[in-house]
Amino acid sequence: MQTAARNIGLSAPAASQQLRNLETALGQDLVDHGRRPLELSRSGRAYLEHVRAALLHLRQGAAELALIDLRSIRSLRFGIIDDFDGEVTPRLAVALANVLTPAELTLMTTPSLRILEDVAARHVDLGIAARPLEMPEGVNETPVLRDPFVLAVPRGYLAGAPTSIEVLRSLPFLRYERNQLLGRQIAAHLARLRLAPEGRIEMDSNQAIFSLIASGAGWAISTPVGFLRARRFHDQVDIFQLPFAGFARTISLFRRQEWMPEVADIIAESLRGILRAQVVAPGRAAIPWVGEGLAIIPS
């Protein structure tokens, strides 16, 4: 209670009274007042889920309202990572279109490396992509999402989280194609750890890799965002923590150094609101243990 009070700028007695007022209004005890430390009651846990959902919508709404400062823009060319083509890109397009009414808006879905090349060459104004191993010259970055790497295996192949990749030696390792940034990041990390899992299948399709995992044909290193894209295979794939030093990719908004930093910051904040609702919340629901590993990177 003292920690909660401090976080919201109240004294502990005042925070306790606020909690009591809320419980009175709801007609339910939200915490077990007979236990120390306090724990949520069954009613409290149920109510918390609705509160979290409501806060996500409020944050997303506030972020989209911030886009009103974009009305002065006459055209906007946007490159967006293909990982977001299902949920994030349509919502960002609608949010931008609602406030860019006099402008021509172009959104292109492509892999991260192509987006970074296009930003550097001024073929697009802004890009949402994974942070590269080497930043192109003249390009600025605003990080928005931390997406940790995870282990994806056929459902039921492992009884629990493995402590070594040796337990996977009877299955081939399915690689993301190394011309993709994702494949390069995974290969670089495995090389640093001097790990060389066996497997000769290399693919550039996230859906194809998860299809092979679901059929029992191999295992892969992916991310929660990649897992969310493969929704049709969720009941056929298990996701575990990596059995070695963990790592993550950073998804960022990229622009040329001279391109309107104030506008880029507004778009980045709107993007964070969309990502909270469409990536972080469902990602944590699908992979509960990932917790703060999958997280918005604040401004």
Descriptive account of the structure:
With 299 residues, the chain is α/β, with parallel strands linked by helices. It folds into 3 domains: 2-60, Arc Repressor Mutant, subunit A; 64-143 and 256-279, Periplasmic binding protein-like II (D-Maltodextrin-Binding Protein, domain 2), CATH 3.40.190; 150-240, 3-Layer(aba) Sandwich (D-Maltodextrin-Binding Protein, domain 2). Helix content is 40%, strand content 21%. The protein has 9 helices and 13 strands. A 6-stranded mixed β-sheet has the order 4-3-5-12-6-13, sandwiched between helices. Strands 9-8-10-7-11 form a 5-stranded mixed β-sheet, with helices on both faces. Helix 6 links the parallel strand 8 and strand 9. Helix 1 crosses helix 2 and helix 3 runs antiparallel to helix 9 (261-286). The mean pLDDT is 90.
Q: What is the strand and helix layout of this fold?
A:
Elements: H1 2-8, H2 12-26, E1 31-32, E2 39-40, H3 42-65, E3 75-81, H4 88-99, E4 104-110, H5 112-120, E5 126-130, E6 139-148, E7 150-154, E8 173-176, H6 181-192, E9 201-203, H7 206-214, E10 219-222, H8 224-229, E11 237-240, E12 248-256, H9 261-286, E13 295-296
Parallel strand pairs: 3-4, 3-5, 8-9, 8-10
Antiparallel strand pairs: 1-2, 5-12, 6-12, 6-13, 7-10, 7-11
Helix pairs in contact: 1-2, 3-9, 4-9
